């Protein structure tokens, strides 16, 4: 095997080519930095394409009562007040600008009658807020950013004669390790998936935009890429992860047929009138409205139905509760034996809207069910159930710059891989706007960080050699474990023991089993050579999936309450004491996951004033409330 | 139940169809079978995939000779005793097994002029009617699976046409921008004709047939583009009008920002026949040295010459006081 390592010199390297990564790269390039984008897949295939509903931004195009303060309030409520308030604030304030900017890149959103960007209703959002393109908003977003990058490359071509002189996309390339010089990021080491050849990026700044961790779960809407690479790279380079116990299970994934189990059915189906029914035909969501939301949701089917046409005078139907509530409700119905044949519940839009309206408003859902499941959603209900969808936790970052906390410098994170913004539960539509807002910020501040450096950090040769050895190990090892078996075993542990409903005993068991898996992953081997070998690639990804799963399991065991994307059967209540605690994971010198508690940053007074005292009382301790009163 | 499959395995140097018997369950698609093959019989079988829901366009392959997405081809569409043959898409060079080098498409994308924002319209002030954006939206549904490119007979077995022909994917991109209500460029059709090779298309509609998004590529993009190109280029009335109003045109042209024509490197100089199609990876595989590779760092580095093993910010010669050097004979140091 050749040990040649291609060396590349860049100012900013962005790992991940989804929405956050591309937006960060655009910003770094606009700041004049030589920028590389690393993508595990082909350019433009990132998981962002799967986002259907839209991008939340308080533009007030449909309801002029909407503004950033209302959006901020909804985001904090959705995250059960555990959100990093500053991130939620920046997000709500900057999202409209980021959406409008996309139009200057060529995006074509659906329009209102007066020609502005149309906005749709979505779970947890008080007003119609999601800019959308039918139900393929994510595709529009990724294509728009992709085409903007191409247009920047065309500008560079006109100026320098080379498309790649300032921004280059490394397609089908995986980064396996970050290189440090002391505490500073000095580079990134990886391989071309196509050829299996190694490359080393020498760069003082790295932006992580690698997305989530869903591939560690059996039933997931996530693609193969979602193996927690960014989370693991951050940990190994000395950064910290927060809130890893919070995973969002999207309430409506397809459950039939088996080949598409997990694939998402967009929330807009419910936003546009779809209702959830159990096997008795009952609209069961009315039985599951928690006290904190009682005031905002309809109590009768009649009131809920009136809301679609007259939202100002009626309360919304409970099908539009935040995702965690709906997922739990479906889980309970199925457990009580009122589920559908394939183990979900029925989501019905066929009796609610005329067929042509359904096709107009939900074209890709209609298409998806027709092609994948042979179900015509204009004629019959869909079978849906919860699917692992999004990780709220992630790299602990500075809210304003996206710079990772911990010991490392020069590391930035944006999008799903970063944590804090969504608290314990993300509202639908907030992820597309999140990745635009914080993608831009991370790119901007990574570029600014590079300017502050006097000396370029250098990767040590010995680290590069070590990274190459680790990467080649599964190929060199003969007769070790099959990576696909190991992945299935990991998915079984996480799905069965660290799933939607968690118990202390099962979590302890999971941590033990993850330790056993760790030993087995150390002995993984891959058949074949270096040329486009998916078995080898999976063998390398397993290490990342495992360490991130361990963080999730440990944090889930530690947090003794139920909140948002973390439900403990043995601690079913939300605890005001726990609201003040973030769980932070890091790696110690031996490579073991270390967990510690950190206080949640305190919200500024003018932001606290946006909430009713009675609402704050549901989340805060008496002591905190007294402090708020005193101010 | 076990079903019989034939899957092409090999790489750029060649390969052949291999026989596999694989378990198939109710409700599965072809991509499920490939995954089962990887997990049980052929762990290194190369195949692209991502979303598994027909939204990303990664798992393009030819199934019984038909260009299809693996994730959107249900096993129930075949009879129970049918042998299913899976091959890589034919128009692009094979890398390994079912994975092909599709960089042709990314190069053509770069040669298609980007959206030109309307000058003087601030972000947030864009106003468009739904009915006007819908025409372009149809083309923006494209998931870039490149099945249309693969099936297009202009390039399917004619590598020699590739330099001059962008293919259906980029005709709909040109049409999309042409129909964009606020795009500021007005030469989209001319560009399609002059630089994208629109004239090669003889409207056999194969691209429309294979499109998994059911975009009416031929009817809604290619034919209208051809018609309008014909209008502009050959319509005698238009020609006459141009002659008469030439001065006005010149004036309006001077008030509008003018765009330099995007030079299409592959069509600009027709005398260079058959340039290598994929320049994306070319420098990286230049064969030099006994190991078959050269260190390409110096080709891609921002400065001339190879990268310094000491780092790029170190200047030579170093100041003498920074050098830890002890003369072997202390008596003979230059100072004494």
Automatic annotation (TrEMBL), chain A:
Enzyme nomenclature, EC number? 1.3.5.1, 1.3.5.4
Short name of any one Pfam family annotated for the protein: FAD_binding_2
Keywords, A to Z?
FAD, Flavoprotein, Oxidoreductase
Entry protein name: Succinate dehydrogenase / fumarate reductase flavoprotein subunit
- Per UniProt, what is one GO molecular function of this protein? steroid dehydrogenase activity, acting on the CH-CH group of donors
User: Looking at the keywords, is Manganese present?
Assistant: no
Q: Where is this region: Disordered?
A: 300-320
* Record-annotated Fumarate reductase/succinate dehydrogenase flavoprotein-like C-terminal domain positions: 488-601
Q: Which residues form the FAD-dependent oxidoreductase 2 FAD-binding domain?
A: 11-432
Which Gene3D superfamilies does its entry note?
FAD/NAD(P)-binding domain, Fumarate reductase/succinate dehydrogenase flavoprotein-like, C-terminal domain, Succinate dehydrogenase/fumarate reductase flavoprotein, catalytic domain
Q: Which residues form the active site?
A: 323
Which cofactors does this gene product need? FAD
**Basic and acidic residues: bias regions:** 305-320
Q: Does the keyword Oxidoreductase apply?
A: yes
- Give binding positions for FAD: 16-21, 39-54, 229, 416, 431-432
Matching entries from InterPro entries are given as: FAD-dep_OxRdtase_2_FAD-bd, FAD/NAD-bd_sf, Fum_R/Succ_DH_flav-like_C_sf, Fum_Rdtase/Succ_DH_flav-like_C, SdhA/FrdA/AprA, Succ_DH/fumarate_Rdtase_cat_sf
Annotated positions binding substrate: 250, 266, 389, 426
Q: What SUPFAM superfamilies does the record point to?
A: FAD/NAD(P)-binding domain, Succinate dehydrogenase/fumarate reductase flavoprotein C-terminal domain, Succinate dehydrogenase/fumarate reductase flavoprotein, catalytic domain
TrEMBL record, chain B:
Which Pfam families does the entry mention? Answer: Fer2_3, Fer4_8
- Annotated ranges, domain 2Fe-2S ferredoxin-type: 3-90
Give the E.C. number(s).
1.3.5.1, 1.3.5.4
Q: Where is this region: Disordered?
A: 250-336
- Give me the segments passing through the membrane: none
Q: Per its UniProt record, what Gene3D superfamilies does this chain match?
A: 3.10.20.30, Alpha-helical ferredoxin (1.10.1060.10)
Q: Its annotated pathway? A: Carbohydrate metabolism; tricarboxylic acid cycle
**Segments of skewed composition (Polar residues):** 264-277
Q: Which domain of life is it from?
A: Bacteria
GO CC term (a single one): plasma membrane
The cofactors required by this protein are: [4Fe-4S] cluster; [2Fe-2S] cluster; [3Fe-4S] cluster
Question: Keyword set for this entry?
Answer: 2Fe-2S, 4Fe-4S, Iron, Iron-sulfur, Metal-binding, Oxidoreductase
| GO biological-process terms attached to the record | respiratory electron transport chain; tricarboxylic acid cycle
Q: Name one GO molecular function term.
A: succinate dehydrogenase (quinone) activity
UniProt lists compositionally biased (Basic and acidic residues) regions at 324-336
Q: Which PANTHER family match?
A: SUCCINATE DEHYDROGENASE [UBIQUINONE] IRON-SULFUR SUBUNIT, MITOCHONDRIAL, SUCCINATE DEHYDROGENASE IRON-SULFUR PROTEIN
Q: Which family does it belong to?
A: Belongs to the succinate dehydrogenase/fumarate reductase iron-sulfur protein family.
Question: Know the name of this protein?
Answer: Succinate dehydrogenase / fumarate reductase iron-sulfur subunit
Native organism is Actinoplanes campanulatus
């Amino acid at each position: 095997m050749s040990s040649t390592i291609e060396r590349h010199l860049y100012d900013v390297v962005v790992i991940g080519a989804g929405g956050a990564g591309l937006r960060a790269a655009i910003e770094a390039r606009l700041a004049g930095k030589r920028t590389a984008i690393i993508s595990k897949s082909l350019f433009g295939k990132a998981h962002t394409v799967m986002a259907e509903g839209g991008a939340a931004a308080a533009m007030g195009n449909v309801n002029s009562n909407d503004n950033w303060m209302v959006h901020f309030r909804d985001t904090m409520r959705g995250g059960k007040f555990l959100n990093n308030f500053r991130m939620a604030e920046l997000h709500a304030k900057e999202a409209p600008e980021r959406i409008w900017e996309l139009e200057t890149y060529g995006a074509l959103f659906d329009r209102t009658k007066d020609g502005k960007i149309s906005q749709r209703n979505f779970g947890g959002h008080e007003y119609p807020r999601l800019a959308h393109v039918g139900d393929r908003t994510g595709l529009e977003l990724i294509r728009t950013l992709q085409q903007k990058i191409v247009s920047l490359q065309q500008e560079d071509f006109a100026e320098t004669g080379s498309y790649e002189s300032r921004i280059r996309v490394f397609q089908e390339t995986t980064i396996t390790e970050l290189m440090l010089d002391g505490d500073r990021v000095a580079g990134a080491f990886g391989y071309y998936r196509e050829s299996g050849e190694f490359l080393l990026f020498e760069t003082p700044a790295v932006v992580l935009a690698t997305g989530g961790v869903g591939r560690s779960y059996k039933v997931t809407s996530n693609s193969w890429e979602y193996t927690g690479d960014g989370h693991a790279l951050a940990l190994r380079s000395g950064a910290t992860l927060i809130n890893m116990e919070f995973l969002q299970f999207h309430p409506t994934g397809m459950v039939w047929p088996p080949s598409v189990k997990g694939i998402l059915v967009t929330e807009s189906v419910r936003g546009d009138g779809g209702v959830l029914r159990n096997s008795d035909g009952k609209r069961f969501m009315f039985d599951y409205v928690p006290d904190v939301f009682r005031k905002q949701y309809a109590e009768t089917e009649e009131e809920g139905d009136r809301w679609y046409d007259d939202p100002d005078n009626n309360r919304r139907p409970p099908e539009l509760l935040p995702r965690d509530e709906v997922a739990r409700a479906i889980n309970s119905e199925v457990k009580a034996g009122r589920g559908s044949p394939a183990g979900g519940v029925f989501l019905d839009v066929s009796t609610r809207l005329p067929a042509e309206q359904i096709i107009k408003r939900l074209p890709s859902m209609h298409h998806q069910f027709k092609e994948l499941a042979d179900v015509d959603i204009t004629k019959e209900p869909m079978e849906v159930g919860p699917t692992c969808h999004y990780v709220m936790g992630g790299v602990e970052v500075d809210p304003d710059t996206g710079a990772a906390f911990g010991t490392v410098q020069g590391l930035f994170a944006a999008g799903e891989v970063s944590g804090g913004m969504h608290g314990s539960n993300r509202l639908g539509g907030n992820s597309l706007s999140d990745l635009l807002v914080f993608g831009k910020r991370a790119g901007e501040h990574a570029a600014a960080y590079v300017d502050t450096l006097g000396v370029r950090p250098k990767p040590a040769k010995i680290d590069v050699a070590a990274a190459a050895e680790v990467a080649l190990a599964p190929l060199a090892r003969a007769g070790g474990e099959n990576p696909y078996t190991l992945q299935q075993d990991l998915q079984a542990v996480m799905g069965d023991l660290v799933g939607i409903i968690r118990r202390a005993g099962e979590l302890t068991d999971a941590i033990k089993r993850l330790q056993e898996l760790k030993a087995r992953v150390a002995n993984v081997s891959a058949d074949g050579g270096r040329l486009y070998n998916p078995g080898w690639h999976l063998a390398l990804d397993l290490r990342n999936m495992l360490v991130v799963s361990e963080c999730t399991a440990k944090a889930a065991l530690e947090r003794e309450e139920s909140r948002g994307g973390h439900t403990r059967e043995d601690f079913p209540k939300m605890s005001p004491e726990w609201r003040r605690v973030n769980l932070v994971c890091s790696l110690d010198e031996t490579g073991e996951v270390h967990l510690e508690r950190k206080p949640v940053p305190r919200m500024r007074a003018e932001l606290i004033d946006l909430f009713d005292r009675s609402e704050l009382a549901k989340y805060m301790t008496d002591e905190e409330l007294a402090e708020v009163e005193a101010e | 139940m076990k079903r019989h499959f034939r899957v092409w395995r090999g790489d750029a140097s060649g390969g052949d169809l291999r026989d596999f018997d694989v378990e198939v369950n109710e409700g599965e698609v072809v991509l499920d079978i490939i995954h089962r093959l990887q997990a049980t019989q052929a762990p290194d079988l190369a195949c692209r995939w991502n979303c598994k829901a027909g939204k990303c366009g990664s798992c393009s392959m030819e199934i019984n000779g038909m260009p299809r997405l693996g994730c959107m081809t249900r096993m129930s569409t075949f009879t129970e005793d049918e042998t299913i043959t899976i091959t890589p898409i034919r128009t692009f060079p094979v890398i390994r097994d079912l994975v092909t080098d599709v960089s042709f498409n990314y190069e053509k994308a770069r040669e298609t002029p980007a959206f030109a924002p309307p000058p003087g319209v601030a972000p947030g002030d864009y106003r468009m009617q739904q009915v006007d954006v819908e025409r372009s939206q149809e083309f923006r549904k494209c998931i870039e699976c490149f099945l249309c490119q693969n099936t297009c007979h202009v390039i399917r077995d004619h590598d020699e046409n590739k330099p001059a022909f962008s293919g259906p994917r980029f005709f709909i991109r040109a049409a999309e921008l042409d129909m964009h209500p606020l795009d500021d460029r007005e030469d989209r059709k001319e560009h399609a004709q002059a630089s994208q090779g629109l004239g090669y298309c003889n409207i056999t509609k194969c691209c429309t047939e294979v499109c998994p998004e059911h975009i009416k590529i031929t009817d809604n993009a290619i034919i209208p583009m051809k018609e309008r190109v014909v209008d502009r280029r050959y319509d005698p009335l238009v020609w006459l009008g141009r002659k008469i109003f030439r001065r006005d045109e010149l004036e309006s042209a001077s008030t509008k920002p003018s765009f330099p024509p995007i030079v299409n490197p592959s069509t600009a100089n027709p005398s260079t026949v058959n340039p290598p199609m994929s320049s994306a990876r070319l420098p990286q595989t230049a064969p030099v040295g006994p190991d078959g590779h050269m260190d390409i760092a110096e080709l891609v580095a921002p400065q001339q010459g190879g990268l310094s093993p000491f780092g790029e910010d170190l200047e030579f010669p170093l100041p003498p006081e920074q050098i830890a050097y002890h003369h072997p004979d202390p008596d003979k140091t230059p100072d004494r």
